[in-house]
Write a structure and sequence with these properties.
Structural class: alpha+beta
Number of strands: 7
Strand content: 25-35%
Order of helices and strands: HEHEEEEEEH
Helix content: 25-40%
Strand order of the largest sheet: 1-7-6-5-4-3-2
Oligomer: single chain
Number of helices: 3
């Protein structure tokens, strides 16, 4: 009985310690990557503001070719929603909504993940003209993990996890745009 009581106190102590540590762990994360595309800014921006075009360059859109997609609204305008559903656990179910567009500059999107977990993140793509035929494109994510789930940020390297996929998508976007 003493061993069981000691084991129980140890487990409770570990849980309490984890909850205390979570109070001091950051809750926000942000990841951004960029690429230079040899095309005029207006052409690049017009392509990236259409969410359906992400099928041509987004790493995530190509994980499950059989995923079910539905669309609401007019692509390339505020309020357009692209929803996806997949049995692949790496894809799950969710939607992406265009929340703001500043022409030839920035598109903001809200990502709502529903399965295998619920979360909301903000995503954006920015363009910056670097002359007549060259454009810098930035793609970024910003998210927040509420207490006590923020404790997972100690073990998850969001910079590496999301960063490689963002860069892979941007590299593919460069190839698609420069054909």
């Amino acid at each position: 009985m003493k061993i069981l009581k000691g084991l129980l106190l140890t487990v409770v102590g570990i849980v309490v310690l984890a909850l205390i540590v979570a109070l001091f762990v950051k809750k926000d994360y942000a990841v951004e990557r960029k690429v230079t595309i040899n095309k005029p800014e207006s052409e690049v921006f017009d392509f990236i503001k259409h969410i359906k075009n992400q099928d041509q360059y987004s790493v995530w859109n190509n994980i499950d070719p059989a995923m079910k997609k539905t669309y609401t609204g007019t692509d390339g305008t505020v309020g357009f929603i692209s929803a996806w559903e997949s049995t692949n656990k790496n894809v799950g179910k969710g939607e992406q909504e265009i929340t703001n567009i500043k022409e030839s500059d920035r598109i903001d999107m809200k990502l709502r993940f529903k399965e295998p977990f619920e979360a909301e993140d903000d995503a954006y793509m920015e363009t910056e003209g670097m002359g007549a035929n060259q454009t810098h494109v930035k793609w970024g994510f910003k998210g927040r993990m509420a207490y006590p789930m923020n404790l997972m940020l100690l073990f998850m390297d969001m910079e590496s996890m999301l960063g490689k996929d963002l860069q892979g998508g941007l590299d593919k976007l460069k190839v698609v745009m420069e054909k």
